[in-house]
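Support reply, case 0932

Customer input (verbatim):
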Amino acid sequence: MQGADIVITMGCGDACPIVPGRRYLDWPVTDPEGALIAVARSIRDEIDAHITELLDSLPSA
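Our regenerated output:
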């Protein structure tokens, strides 16, 4: 995390380590462990949507 500009957490709340000076985004998603494949796929799609939204929000290089 030391080299990261943005740190993504997925619902770990206070249990996540914090590095000062970083931008934190929390994407609370359901844990896919033991889930049916259809549920796991919907979780994957939710994460993909978050990633797409983040990429669209970043300034162009």
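We compared this against your earlier run and they match. Two observations from our side: The two ends are 22 Å apart (CA to CA). The first strand starts at residue 6 and ends at 9. Please reopen the case if you see a mismatch on your end.
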